[in-house]
Design a protein that fits this description.
Bound molecules: zinc ion
Helix content: 10-25%
Structural class: alpha/beta
CATH topology: Rossmann fold
CATH architecture: 3-Layer(aba) Sandwich
Shape: elongated
Number of domains: 1
CATH superfamily: P-loop containing nucleotide triphosphate hydrolases
CATH class: Alpha Beta
Distance between the termini: 47 Å
Length: 198
């Protein structure tokens, strides 16, 4: 039985590298893979997933209105050995798209590996992650480390002046902000959780 997996982590844990490595493992064994990434993530100019260590593979770009199920079914017509769908930045999925991923695993019998963040810079869940955490057959944490050495589970948005951001849109495109992954103890020193700070 094909399964839906959610590999979740904080920022900068090497999710894209892990995704590309998994795809490579399938292809090395003669099986085909299909990759998806969010539409606004084509910062390198072509639709592909890139890792910081130099790997890349072409990807189909999705937005909120895109049917991942239909695209996969269409791809199956020319890829009879398609065994695995891999999806980067899965936190940007809608609830309906996560339901489509369940259908890809259970109706089309293709394994679905998704990679994404659990929470945003205000410690709120992303819609895609919320339903992946609820509906995936397997949850796998990709671990990364806070500056203190504890496991980092949270993401702090840092503005151009190096200060933590405590309000704003969940998705910010084209800004100068960057992200730092930290443990919950250190997150609370910078951003209030549900209005409660240290
Ligand atoms: Zn820490």
């Amino acid at each position: 039985m094909a399964k839906l997996y959610f590999y979740y982590s904080a920022m900068n844990a090497g999710k894209s590298t892990t995704l590309l490595q998994s795809s490579y493992n399938y292809r090395e064994r003669g099986m085909q893979t299909l990759l998806f990434a969010p539409k606004f993530d084509d910062r390198f100019g072509s639709p592909a997933i890139y890792s910081r260590i130099g790997l890349m593979q072409e990807a189909i770009l999705f937005d909120k209105d895109f049917s991942i199920f239909s695209a996969t079914k269409e791809a199956l017509e020319n890829m009879e050995n398609l065994r695995c769908v891999l999806l980067d930045e899965a936190h940007f999925l809608t609830k309906a798209q996560v339901a489509e991923l369940v259908a890809i695993a259970k109706e089309l019998s293709i394994a679905v590996l998704t990679y994404g963040l659990r929470s945003d810079f205000l410690a709120e869940p992303f819609e895609g992650s919320k339903y992946l955490l609820t509906w995936a057959d397997e949850l796998v944490e990709i671990k990364t480390i806070c500056h203190c050495g504890s496991k980092a589970t949270m993401n702090v948005r840092i503005d151009a002046q190096g200060r933590p951001v405590t309000a704003g849109e969940q998705v910010q495109i084209g800004g100068n902000d960057s992200y730092v992954s930290v443990c919950m103890k250190h997150f609370r020193t910078m951003v209030p959780i549900n209005g409660v700070s240290v």
